[in-house]
Design goal:
By secondary structure, the protein is an alpha/beta fold. It has one domain: Rossmann fold. It contains five helices and six strands; from the N terminus they run βαββαβαββαα. It has a six-stranded mixed β-sheet with strand order 3-2-1-4-5-6, sandwiched between helices. Helix 1 packs parallel to helix 5 and helix 3 runs antiparallel to helix 4. It starts with a strand and ends with a helix.
Length: 151
Amino acid sequence: MVDIYVDADACPVRDETLRVAARHGLKTYLVSDGGIRPGQNPLVELVIVSQGADAADDWIAEQIQKSDICITNDTPLAARCLQRGALVLKPNGEPFTEDSIGMALASRDLMQGLRDSGEITGGPKPFNKSDRSTFLNRLETTVQAAKRQRQ
């Protein structure tokens, strides 16, 4: 069975993920350091981790298996999940892949350095309706691909 892991703190596509997971009957873990109310779906497990910079990331990276799916904007977490053979999507639907993760990590480090030096003060572009639609389509195809990998 394919499981879905959501880095749930500040994730803008939790509801969309739960809809797709329910349609496919997939166990979904919402991993957070608090502030999320549990739902009624028995296939959704709310995992509350201790507060700390990487507590949710560490839990996901330790649990995720080959062909599971992770939803995160966190590039280092994405790299850890890819190393375990998982599939990883950003909330805007963009996949992290073995081919793209090296550049994503390098870009993250570069941007962090520029922010730390004050050269860049803005963040990413705002999340929009198009991102949500792209995510839904990409999650559907990712779930189908993960199921094929598990067979």
